Amino acid sequence: MAKVLVTGGCGFIGTNLLKYILANRPDWEVVNLDLLTYAGNLENTLELEKLYPQRYSFVRADIADAETIDTVFQEHAFDLVMNLAAESHVDRSIENAGVFIRTNVLGVQVLLDAAVKYSVKKFLHVSTDEVYGSLGSEGRFREDLPLAPNSPYSASKAAADLLVRAYIKTYGLDAVITRCSNNYGPYQFPEKLIPLMVVNAYHERELPVYGDGKNVRDWIYVEDHCRGIVMVAEQGECGEIYNMGGDAEKENIQIVRSILGHLGKTDDLIRYVKDRPGHDFRYAMDFSKIESELGWSPEYDFTGGISRTIDWYLNNKPWWERILSGDYQNYYERMYANR
Ligand code: NAD
Ligand code: TYD
């Protein structure tokens, strides 16, 4: 049995990763450590406790709380740590950067210290394409590009990547970094583009498109990302960074229109709103390194993946209705009322 820690397992990618691991790695015993912030939903993982009582457990803890993290690492003697816990929404980082620095930078330092102290065999840190900054209409991000983050969120993720590098060089920690493009799929919090637009279109509420809607993201179905994370944890070389992407560049307005089309709603619901400050124009991933070295490539095409995703939200209305009935209302007011 390999003992594995997944942090942030009650969030969007973490939930999908836990499901993938427990179904595909029968000899992994997994602890999910999550603080359950607004973005963490314990409901997502409850079925895992029933399905895998011997191989799955949950700990509520803050990755930036060094004392508690030390105790958890001492108790479990992890072979592998996969760090997904983070504050992840760019718009929130523009409102309040402090919590992003605390979790995404300080929290990573605390985890790295514990990994060194308790001789963790492999540390996988989940980063993002946003650390590379923004592209013009040409080119793709390669792993050897300099870091050039433009939002407090991406700056905090870039800082964490540098800490991981430093712990490899200084303490000999065996660590790897993955950088992935925008994920979509089940369990994504409805503040992010795709679920937000599905929910608003469903209710025939306005769909707030930032700027002219021509910013480009490279979309990857979340399960492809999860498969890649596991592959990098198993086969990735210490100190290496692996890009992943979906090979599916879309303008935001294309995404919004395809959601409206899928739900049979008209484009009249689209409202162009004031742009996000520092809005990165385009992300596109060159993932030839992971393709040639580890044999990974995305399996879902965007058309199939987006229909599957929209259907998931339509079939799981109670899941997002519960989220929308809480503090989300205040967030939505703050973010969109005066734009
Ligand atoms: P998410 O916001 O949906 O989930 C984050 C999870 O982390 C939540 O469950 C939350 O409760 C938990 N968390 C937050 N602060 C914590 C803390 N201090 N201690 C413990 N747990 C804490 O995020 P996501 O979209 O699932 O992203 C997961 C990771 O993947 C992040 O590191 C993010 O930067 C990275 N990433 C995301 C995308 C994307 O498109 N969503 C793309 C590339 C990389
Ligand atoms: P988002 O899902 O927040 O991901 P990220 O900013 O990390 O790429 O946003 C994806 C794109 O959609 C981004 O260009 C901003 C845009 N966007 C809107 O136009 N309207 C919205 O209400 C949101 C949340 C995002």
What do these coordinates show?
With 339 residues, this protein is of the alpha/beta class. The chain is 44% helix and 17% strand. The protein contains 13 helices and 12 strands. The strands form 3 sheets. Strands 3-2-1-4-5-6-10 form a 7-stranded parallel sheet, sandwiched between helices. Strands 7-9-11 form a 3-stranded mixed sheet. Helix 5 packs parallel to helix 6. The chain is globular, with a radius of gyration of 19 Å. Nicotinamide-adenine-dinucleotide (NAD) binds next to helix 1, helix 5, strand 5 and strand 7.
Outline of the structure:
The protein has 339 residues and is α/β, with parallel strands linked by helices.
Sum up the overall morphology in one term: globular
Total number of beta strands: 12
- Structure annotation, total helices: 13
Q: Name the structural class.
A: alpha/beta
Poorly predicted ranges (pLDDT <50, ≥5 residues)? none
Strand content: 15-25%
Major sheet strand order: 3-2-1-4-5-6-10
H/E series: EHEHEHEHHEHEEHEEHEEHEHHHH
Mean pLDDT: 97
Distance between the termini: 52 Å
Main features:
binds nicotinamide-adenine-dinucleotide; 13 helices; seven-stranded parallel beta sheet; alpha/beta; single chain; globular; binds thymidine-5'-diphosphate; 339 residues; 17% strand; 44% helix
Lay out the secondary structure:
Blueprint: E1 2-7, H1 12-24, E2 28-34, H2 46-51, E3 56-60, H3 66-76, E4 80-83, H4 90-95, H5 98-117, E5 122-128, H6 152-171, E6 175-180, E7 182-184, H7 193-202, E8 207-210, E9 216-221, H8 222-235, E10 241-244, E11 249-251, H9 252-263, E12 270-273, H10 288-294, H11 302-315, H12 317-324, H13 328-336
Parallel strand pairs: 1-2, 1-4, 2-3, 4-5, 5-6, 6-10, 7-9, 8-12
Antiparallel strand pairs: 9-11
Helix pairs in contact: 1-8, 3-5, 5-6, 7-9
Bound molecules: nicotinamide-adenine-dinucleotide (NAD) and thymidine-5'-diphosphate (TYD).
Thymidine-5'-diphosphate is lined by residues 90, 182, 192-193, 196, 208-210, 215, 217, 252, 276.
